[in-house]
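Sequence in, structure out.
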Amino acid sequence: MKVLISADMEGATGVTWPADVLPGGPQWERCRPMFTSDVNAAIEGFFAGGADEVLVNEAHWTMRNLLLERLDDRAQMLTGRHKSLSMVEGVQHGDVDGIAFVGYHTGAGAEGVLAHTYLANSLTGVWLNGVRASEGLLNAHVVAEFGVPVVLVTGDDKTVEDAGGYAPAARGVAVKDYVSRYAAVCRTPARTAADIRAAATEAAALAVRTEPVRGGPFTVELEFDAEHLAGAATVVPGVAPAGERRVAYTTETMYDGIRCFKAVTTIVSAAVEEQYG
C-alpha cells in the first residue's frame, strides 16, 4: 500500500494569519515545526494502519516549507516547485492507493482560516461546474481520474466540512475552529498530532485503488478582484470572458483542467501590481 500526502500549510496546527505561512519570516519559521508535526502524525498513522510506503508532496507556496530533517525516516518527500500536477504530483504514476490532504483550507470567497484558491488574494471565487471550488475539490477530481481515493483531510473545521462534499468517506480532523479569516481557536500540537495519527490509522483501510472516474466535461469559472486580471487570463487558449471580472474554460478531463488553472493563475500573478493589485 502506497499513500501520497499532499501537504499544504494554511490548514496546519497553529496557523492563523499570513505571516505564519509566508516563507522567510520568523512566524513562518515558528510554524514550520507544527506543520511538520501534522505531516509526521499522518505518516505514523498510515504506517500503523498497514501502509508500506508514504510519499509526501510539499504543496505550499515555494513547496519548501517542511523540515526534512525532522520528517519520519520511513517516508520520502517530494519538495520544490514546477511540478506537472502541482499539489497532487505523484498520483499519475499508477502506484498510489490513497491520498491525504494535510493542512488544507477552504476556497476563495468562503468562510475559513486563510481561505483562498491557489492565489492568496486576487481570486475572489472559483467554481467547478457551478459549485464553489476549494483546492481540495479541484484536486479530488484530478486524483479520481487516476482511481485514487481521498482518505484523510486535515485543516480547520470549515475545511473538514468542505471535504464532506468531495470525499464523504474520508476521515477528517479539525486542528482548529474558524473564527475569522485570520483567527481560530487552536488545539495544541500534541493534541492535533494524536488526532491526526488516529484518523490516519483508520484511513489506511480506505486506501484502495478504484476504476478511474471520468467525470467531464469540466467548466471552471474564475472571478478576480480587478478587471485587468480577467483580461490577462484570456491570454491562455480556451479561456474566455464570462462576465464582469470573470473568465471560464471547459476541458474534458480535470488533468487538463488543473493544468489550465495553473497556467491562468501563473499569468494572473505576473499581472498584479504592487499596492493596486
